[in-house]
Amino acid sequence: MLDIEITEKVDAQVWNNLVRSVPEGTIFQTTYWADYLVNTGYCKPLFLIARENQKYKGILLFWIELLNTRTRCYRKSFRILEFFSKKLKIKIGNWMFGPLMLDKKESVLVLKKILIEVNKFAKENNLVVIRNLAEPLDYTLRPPDKNVNEAYFSSEYKEKLKATVFLNLSRDIDSMWGGLKKKVREDVNKAKKHHITIGFIEKEELDTYKKLIIENTERVATEFPPYYPDDNMWSALKKEENCLEVIAIKQENKIIGAKGILEFNGIIFQIASCQSNGSYLNKMNVNDLMTWEVIRWGCNNNKRIYDLTGIPESPKNTKEKNLRHYKKKWSDNVIIYNGYERICRKNTGAVINLLKKLI
To answer: What is the torsion angle, in degrees rounded to the nearest 10, for the CA atoms of residue 74, residue 77, residue 82 and residue 85?
Structure first.
C-alpha cells in the first residue's frame, strides 16, 4: 500500500541524497531551498514523502506562501496590496520542478496519489490556489510523457507551456568555446577589452548587487526577480555544499554586472542577471562575458547542465523576442515543459486573478 506523509521536518542528509539520486533532482527540491524559504518570512515549506513498505517511491518539497509584493519590493505604493492580501488570508501553494519519482515504473500511479494528497491538503488548509508549478526537467530532451500530463489534468490542473534553454557541460572547456557561434565568441572577447575584472562577490557586496538589480529592472521595465541572492538566500545556500555563488564583473573596483548561480546535483541555474546602465549604454557585452564565465566555471568544476532559466515559449512582444533570441544564441537545446495551476477556492478566483497581476 502506498502511504503519503506530509511533514515539516526531515533528515537533511537522507532527503538531499534522495534528490541527488535522480538526474532531474535540483536545488529547488532540497532542504537548502526549504531553509531559504523559511528565511524569507512568508513561506512555510513542507516535505511530502510517498512510500510503500518503507521504500521511497516519490518525494516533493512544496510550500505555502502568503501573497506578497516580492517582485515589487522597491515600490512602496504596492505595500497596500500586500496588506489586503494578508487581511484576506490569501495563501497559495507552490513547488518547483517536482514531484521527483524515485520508482520510474510506478511514476504515474505515485504522481496521481501525490496530487490527490496535495489537493486534499490545500482544501484542509484553505489555500486559494496552487500555482507556478513546474514538472521536473528532462535534459535528455525525450518527448513528454502523455500519461504524466493526464495525471495532472485528472486533478483539475490548468496547463501552461513553458520553455528553457540549457547547455550540456560534459565537454572540455576548449570544445565548449569552439562550439559557440562565432558572433558569441566575438562578443565575449570584446567585453574583455574594457579593463574589467571577473570574480565572485562577498556577502558584504549583496546590497550593491541588489541596487544593480533595481537599476536593471527599472531600465528594462520589468519586475524584480522573485528569488535573488540576498542575506536570506546566502545564509541558507552557502552551507557545506555551497549551492550559491554570484559572479560579478567589475570596472575600477565597481560592480557593473552580476549574475547569481544556484547549483546542486551538477545542475546550474542562473538567477537575477543584471548590468548597470553605463555598461548597457556603452555596449560592453557584460551579459555575454558573465554567461561565458558560468560555462567556464561549470566545466572546470565538473557540472553537468547549465540552465539559462526560461525563455518565452511563444513571445508576445519585442522584449520577449529579444530575451528568447539572447538565450538561444548560446544553445539550440530547448526544453518545452508544462507549468500547472489549480484554483482551490473558486469563489475568490476573481480577486486572485487581479492580485496576481499586481503582486
So the answer is: -150
Rg (the chain; Cα; Å)? 21
Are the beta carbons of 169 and 176 closer than 8 angstroms?
yes
The three cell numbers of residue 29 are 527540491
Cβ neighbors of 156 (< 8 A, separation 6 or more) are 119, 342
- What type of residue is 301? N
The residue type found at 232 is N
Q: Determine the residue type at 166.
A: F
The answer as to whether 309 is a domain residue is no
- Quote the CA–CA distance of 61 and 30 in Å, as a whole number: 7
In sequence order, what are the beta bridge partners of 150?
Answer: none
> pLDDT tens for residues 318-346?
878 888 888 899 999 999 988 898 887 66
pTM for this prediction: 0.91
- 151 and 197 inside one domain: no
- CATH number for the domain that contains residue 19: 3.40.630.30
In the chain, which stretches have pLDDT less than 70? 67-89, 345-359
**pLDDT single digits (tens) 45-68:** 999 999 999 899 999 999 998 866
Q: Are 62 and 339 in contact (CB under 8 A)?
A: no
How far is the CA of 248 from the CAs of 103, 239, 272, 284, 307, in angstroms? 41, 21, 12, 14, 18
Q: How many Å apart are CA 222 and CA 224, to the nearest integer? A: 7
Q: CA 142, CA 154: separation in Å to the nearest integer?
A: 23
